[in-house]
């Protein structure tokens, strides 16, 4: 059982590492029909909704690239440590993101994803770029920091 999940997780990691807009039709090869996808900005269910999340990503991040650094499998659950990089703000509309994160991915008996939840710090990577919010976040961090 775990070997099947290891294989499914490795295939999934390779898919995301090479993901391009023209690959989105393959989502059904990896996701169960009613799969859930959640990140700091989205919480959707179903392949059509998952595809919309990635279409939105490609619309706003012209050169996204995922690098999977590590995959850990326990039962039907896989944890992916990854890095997401996009072009800088001066590079034709890129957001200049460089995000480290972890995804918790559950696989069904057929090796398809039933739930994919991303964990990454949106405050550090996005909110801190907004003038008023960055000032507020700096004040909050200063108050709760042990240093």
UniProtKB/TrEMBL annotation:
The keyword Isomerase applies. The keyword Isomerase applies. Pfam families: SnoaL_2 (PF12680). GO terms for molecular function: isomerase activity. Residues 15-116 form the SnoaL-like domain. Keywords: Isomerase. This is Ketosteroid isomerase homolog. It comes from Ectothiorhodosinus mongolicus.
């Amino acid at each position: 059982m775990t070997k099947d999940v290891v294989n499914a997780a490795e295939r999934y990691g390779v898919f995301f590492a090479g993901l391009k807009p023209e690959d989105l039709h393959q989502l059904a090869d990896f996701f169960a029909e009613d799969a859930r996808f959640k990140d700091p900005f989205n919480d959707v269910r179903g392949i059509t909704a998952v595809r919309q999340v990635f279409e939105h990503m490609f619309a706003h991040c012209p050169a996204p690239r995922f690098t999977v650094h590590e995959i850990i499998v326990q039962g039907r659950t896989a944890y992916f440590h990854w890095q997401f990089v996009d072009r800088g703000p001066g590079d034709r509309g890129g957001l200049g993101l460089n995000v480290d994160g972890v995804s918790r991915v559950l696989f069904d008996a057929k090796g398809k994803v039933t739930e994919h939840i991303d964990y990454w710090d949106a405050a550090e990577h996005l909110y801190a770029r907004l003038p008023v919010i960055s000032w507020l976040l700096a004040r909050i961090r200063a108050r709760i920091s042990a240093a």
